[in-house]
Amino acid sequence: MTPDIGLILGIDGVATGSIYVLVGLGLVLIFSVTRVVFVPFGDIVAFSALTLASLQLGRMPGTVYLVATLAVVACVVVSIHHWRRREPHRIGWGLLGYGVVPLVPAVIAWLFAGASLPNWAQIPLAIALVVPIAPLIERIALRPLADASVLLLLIVSVALTFALSGLGLLFFGPEGFRTEPLTNEVFRFGSVIVTSQTLLMVATAVVFSLLLFLFFEHTLAGKALRATAVNRVGARIVGIHPGSTGTLAFLLASLLGAISGILIGPVTTLYYDSGFIIGLKAFVGAIIGGLVSYPGTAIGAILIGLLESFASFWSSSFKEVIVFSVLIPVLLWRSLSLEQTDEEDAEVEG
Q1: What residue ranges do the domains of the chain occupy?
Q2: C-alpha span between 178 and 46 (Å, rounded)
């Protein structure tokens, strides 16, 4: 391997890792607030790219039917919930939030189906279509189990992955798609060529990581999310509603997933089930950060991107094996660190 090849692989790894950063941050955000390892998160990334591809081809995005289905089910769940709690006056607000609002971009996409929309309109519409998916799933399947064990929540999350994969096949079909590049500029640094798409991926990851930091540090909603992540019972005592913070966490994470899909769509062909592998690789990065540290997750995601890039050069057939094998030493390290902490605590108590 020459230095030039190593540099090219490094740049490609950082760009891929930038996508894993956004997905990993979304996973940690959801887990820290709701204790849910949201396995279907990668599907949102894939659905975002497939939605934009459908709009660019002048087709009706399958996301319209997916969101409509989820919105109808969510409205039924919300209505039953408030009726059982003898709060009929809150049913209207629930129908507005989980029925009307998510369907607005779906109606817009349906009205403009077959029309040639400009690129600046296609991207926001694709994001708006995809963002409601995670909050709707949270309200339908996860919020009723909010007080369940982490293991049960994980089992439900895995089941949701298979359900979304089946719905993706139904609404998007088995064909793979690649979206048009967001930018076509090419920059040359010596003997190394860097595309503007790569720079855009890295810059977006940096910008949204910074925005997420500012949100948690300087906004009331961000501090409410942090409080819920630290102590759900304590947050409820001081007036913070865990259900609302959970919905907000899923909404923000879904936005990160939608943007990730827009960015990764031009550089790889995505299918209805491609999101599972993307989410799993980002999950490895999140595990490196302990599923609690945002900076640790970002560093871990970049490392996974670099490892994947160099593994593809060494042996493309075994790149997935190499990447996922990182989980073993990381989990061992985490396990040993946890045991050491427990022993220290026991010594202090003694």
Answers
A1: 21-273
A2: 11
